[in-house]
Amino acid sequence: MRPPIELGNRRTSVQSIFEFLRDEIVNLRLLPGTKISEAEVARQFGVSRQPVRDAFTRLENIDLLLIRPQKATEVRLFSTEDITRARFIRSALEVEVLRRAAKMWDEKDKARLDAIIKQQEAAIEAKNSRKFNKLDHEFHETLCRVGRAEFVISAIEENKSKVARLCRLSLATDDESQELQRLRDVLRDHKEILERLYARDPEGAAAVGKRHLSRLDDTIKALRESHSHFFED
User: Fold this and answer.
1) Degrees (nearest 5) of the Cα angle 13, 14, 17?
2) How far apart are CA 80 and CA 90, in angstroms?
3) Do 53 and 98 fall into the same domain?
4) Could you tell me if 116 and 141 are in contact, meaning their C-beta atoms sit under 8 angstroms apart?
5) Count of domains for the chain
6) What is the pTM of this model?
């Protein structure tokens, strides 16, 4: 692991340790199946074991750690069942968001969405995948706001986060040309979603959105075959 950040009080320590380890796990600096010691993390951060234990529990609650009494805690392997469930829930929520957004958008909403698309085009031109992915998050969150469905943003993000590691693994196996093509495909989907949205076609927008979210299906299948040792089922 990279050096930890400086910690403050105990409450801050739990949050800081949680965020640090979550970042290490999601970005695959701690690979699935890696054993992780409560005592070693406490030593590294210069804290007692209790805040580390609390952080571990929070990580287990979002399926990133597997805590087994009397056995070593380890980074959770990918679960095909959990991934399928999370993607089903996210798709159901986002498709309904698109139906609502197609009925509710106004010119201010259109201006915001069009601006994101232009920024994504610029990110592809600059070969800046990190910027593009940040804008992707903004695009989907903005659609929730357009559909007056801010109340599902956290639920969508929670389920999206369950496959974030898998997305990172996919990106790690891509070369630059593959990555840029993936970004172009996503951008094309975004533009088609907005075409249906601006036509006030709820079912058309929902259909394109569902297809857009299904793009990960082939990626998951390929990773399941090429990295089977990272999967628990």
Assistant:
1) 80
2) 15
3) no
4) no
5) 2
6) 0.78
